[in-house]
């Protein structure tokens, strides 16, 4: 149980509702910012404005998956209110207050460092990333079906990167009957791709490997699908870029050449927000329970 914890949930989309639901079940005291248009009431949760939070009492601040934008604004789907998170706000919290978000950016990292607070990026954790790969794969399948005029079965698909998402994507499309080739840099990854029964190739050879593709799925958050690479693709190739913004594709050139390229980060929150929210809620609640237990041990 989280009975002794004071937590601020600031902004977010439908995924945050599952987080709120889970934390209220565990008896945490919640302050909700950016949820004034939400009809649902949660027992033990108070809808407040940012300046109404008793910041000096907070044990944790939970931000949406993106954290903030580069100007410090927090996404608020359930409110028209503008919520700006600053280092001045964080400095008013106790030193032990931890900030949780899915990912970070230069602005968020800077204000957290300035306030000398701890930032936990949930999407950097293996458990969250692996669980999230499931709805990501389902969303990718949906996009490929919607934006091509061929079956997945028998098509030639390249997956770029063999991280936690890339592995799940490659395995699933192969199970659907696609001819899957996977590009990676490490020889260990090439060995794993071979072990999976898929066709490996080195990313340095990508220009030669894209000439026969129906679909190219990128998971690498760096510019990998350059104009030179895209120029080698058949014009009817579909690119689905799953990397975090701005992706790893030259979208300007793709449009110029007539290659359909879709940037699709955050698919779990789009195709399965309830499941995606439950994934975050379960991991976050485990972390907070551990934090509370350690605090009790140190004070005893």
Notes on the structure:
39% of the residues lie in helices and 19% in strands. With 300 residues, the chain is α/β, with parallel strands linked by helices. Strand 1 (6-10), helix 1 and strand 2 form a beta-alpha-beta unit. The longest helix has 27 residues, at 273-299.
Largest sheet: 6 strands, parallel
Roughly how much helix do the residues carry, as a percent range? 25-40%
Order of helices and strands: EHEEEEEHEHEHEHEHEHEHEHEHH
Compute the average pLDDT.
94
Number of E-type strands: 14
Q: Counting H and I runs of at least 4 residues, what is the number of helices?
A: 11
Biggest β-sheet: strands ordered side by side in the sheet = 3-2-1-4-7-8
Q: What is the beta-strand fraction? A: 15-25%
Compute the separation of the termini in Å: 18 Å
The radius of gyration computed from the alpha-carbon positions, rounded to a whole number of angstroms, is 22 Å
Shape: elongated
Low-confidence stretches: none
What structural class is derived from the secondary structure elements? alpha/beta
């Amino acid at each position: 149980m989280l009975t002794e914890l004071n937590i601020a949930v600031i902004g977010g989309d439908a995924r945050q509702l599952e987080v709120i639901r889970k934390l209220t079940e565990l008896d945490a005291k919640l302050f909700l910012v950016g949820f004034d248009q939400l009809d649902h009431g949660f027992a033990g949760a108070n809808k407040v404005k940012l300046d109404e939070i008793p910041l000096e009492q907070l044990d944790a601040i939970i931000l949406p998956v993106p954290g903030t934008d580069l100007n410090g604004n927090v996404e608020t789907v359930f409110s028209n209110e503008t919520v700006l998170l600053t280092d001045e706000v964080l400095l008013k919290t106790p030193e032990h207050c931890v900030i949780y978000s899915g990912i970070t950016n230069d602005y968020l990292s800077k204000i957290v460092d300035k306030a000398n607070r701890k930032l936990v990026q949930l999407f950097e954790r293996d458990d969250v990333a692996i669980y999230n790969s499931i709805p990501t794969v389902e969303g990718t399948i949906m996009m490929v079906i919607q934006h091509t005029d061929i079956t997945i079965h028998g098509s030639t698909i390249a997956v770029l990167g063999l991280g936690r998402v890339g592995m799940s994507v490659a395995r699933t499309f192969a199970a659907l009957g696609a001819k899957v080739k996977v590009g990676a840099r490490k020889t260990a990854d090439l060995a794993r791709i071979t072990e999976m029964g898929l066709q490996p190739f080195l990313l340095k050879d990508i220009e030669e490997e894209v000439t026969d593709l129906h679909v190219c799925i990128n998971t690498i958050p760096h510019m990998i699908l350059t104009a030179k690479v895209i120029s080698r693709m058949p014009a009817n190739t579909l690119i689905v870029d799953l990397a975090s913004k701005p992706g790893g594709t030259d979208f300007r050139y793709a449009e110029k050449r007539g290659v359909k390229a879709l940037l699709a980060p955050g698919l779990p929150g789009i195709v399965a927000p309830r499941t995606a929210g439950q994934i975050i809620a379960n991991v976050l609640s485990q972390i907070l329970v551990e934090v509370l237990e350690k605090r009790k041990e140190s004070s005893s």
